[in-house]
Inverse folding.
């Protein structure tokens, strides 16, 4: 893929300077990235636990991963004893709608995938994701505007929202989005508005045309869905993944077979389902009140977490969790995303909630962590992200304890590195 190649090749000169590793810094500023080791930590590499060992970082990249022998001498060492080192998390469903872009990295989310935004606000993303310079901002891939029809889901989001009209060429719509800088084609497949009234939705022919054009262009396509019927149309069209789990009915074996055989992933966004039923949202309440989390919440995060949808639909999270269990049991890949940026769901912190909800739905902690690291990197083809591997970008998260045994250890962040430089946690 063209963007992957340029990203991997770029930025080799960055981070070459010598630097001190400030192991105890909570200053809010990133230290300059130099050559150093993180030693004594368990290493979860994005797919499995390798064991206790060390990682050497130089120039913003991982240059050595070892679970045998001592850390090299002659360089600063960050003591990871008792902690677990993992790749920086990837939130594969979020939106920027106001809060500071530093909120994700401060909670270990070093890469974000925005599934709808105004492309005019994302002009620095390609430069940022090629760079190996220290940055408090995440790497960003984005869908830009979604594909929808006049009067359809999201068509009233802004005055300049493009829509696909009857007779328009879906391939031209995709070409326009790619020209605006979209990395992903997002389809809005929703035929009921937030007020419960029917709304127009893309036809099967339009869906097929959009997905085929994205596939020809070599970019992923993902569909917003809440109903099985529209999810089926999307899967049959060949989408790369579903941006939510369908919740209207219990998934039947025929649908599960269809999704598994298609190779598509599903991003459940259980924390959104939880927020939609705000009256019973214990996971979010437990995470955000935890003294290991609460001090780091920004006012923007608090505002989002405290924004109610105003629904009392308490069955939605239960239905979603049951369907996640069915999908996971059928072997369908899960990719973690939160929908942060919408009411009730905040950047960074909501990843912790999502991981706990996924484990509650039946994923093992290791499966949930894989779904938040290597799985999104693979499906969205994010170069150098999602794995602790030689040559990969040193976007890293160190947490106290062992989250592969107890996922709530993710609340207890010890350190975060972005391009090999410490990320300050102060809001
Ligand atoms: Zn969304």
């Amino acid at each position: 893929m063209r963007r992957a190649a340029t990203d991997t090749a770029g930025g080799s000169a960055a981070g070459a300077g010598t630097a001190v590793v400030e192991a105890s810094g909570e200053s809010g500023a990133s230290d300059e990235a130099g050559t150093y080791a993180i030693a004594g930590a368990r290493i979860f590499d994005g797919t499995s636990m390798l064991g206790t060992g060390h990682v050497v970082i130089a120039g913003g990249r991982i240059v050595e991963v070892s679970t045998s022998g001592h850390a090299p001498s002659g360089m600063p060492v960050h003591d990871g004893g008792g902690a677990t080192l993992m790749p920086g998390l990837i939130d594969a469903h979020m939106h920027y709608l106001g809060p500071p872009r530093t909120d994700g990295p401060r909670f270990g989310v070093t890469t974000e995938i925005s599934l709808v935004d105004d492309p005019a606000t994302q002009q620095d993303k390609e430069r940022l994701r090629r760079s190996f310079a220290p940055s408090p901002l995440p790497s960003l891939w984005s869908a830009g505007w979604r594909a929808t029809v006049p009067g359809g889901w999201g068509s009233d989001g802004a005055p300049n929202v493009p829509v696909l009209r009857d007779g328009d060429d879906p391939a031209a719509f995709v070409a326009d989005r790619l020209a605006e800088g979209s990395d992903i084609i997002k389809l809005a497949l929703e035929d009921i508005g937030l007020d419960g009234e029917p709304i127009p939705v893309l036809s099967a022919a339009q869906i097929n045309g959009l997905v085929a054009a994205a596939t020809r262009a070599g970019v992923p396509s993902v569909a917003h869905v809440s109903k099985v019927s529209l999810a089926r149309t999307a899967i049959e069209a060949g989408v790369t993944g579903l941006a939510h789990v369908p919740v209207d009915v219990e998934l039947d074996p025929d649908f599960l077979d269809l999704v598994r055989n298609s190779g598509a992933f599903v991003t459940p966004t259980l924390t959104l389902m939880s927020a939609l039923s705000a009256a019973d949202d214990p996971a979010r309440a437990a995470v955000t009140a935890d003294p290991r989390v609460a001090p780091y919440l920004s006012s923007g995060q608090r505002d989002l977490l405290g924004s109610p949808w105003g629904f009392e639909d308490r069955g939605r999270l239960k239905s979603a969790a049951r369907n996640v269990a069915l999908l996971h049991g059928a072997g369908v890949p899960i990719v973690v995303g939160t929908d942060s940026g919408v009411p009730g769901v905040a950047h960074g912190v909501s990843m912790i909630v999502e991981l706990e909800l996924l484990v509650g739905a039946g994923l093992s902690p290791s499966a949930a962590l894989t779904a938040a690291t290597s799985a999104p990197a693979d499906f969205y083809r994010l170069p150098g992200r999602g794995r602790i591997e030689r040559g990969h970008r040193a976007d890293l998260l160190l947490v106290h304890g062992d989250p592969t045994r107890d996922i709530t250890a993710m609340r207890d962040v010890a350190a975060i590195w972005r391009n090999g430089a410490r990320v300050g946690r102060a809001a």
Remarks:
- DSSP finds 13 helices and 15 strands in the chain.
- The chain has two domains: 2-85+390-422, 88-379.
- The first helix runs from residue 2 to 9.
- The longest strand covers residues 49-58.
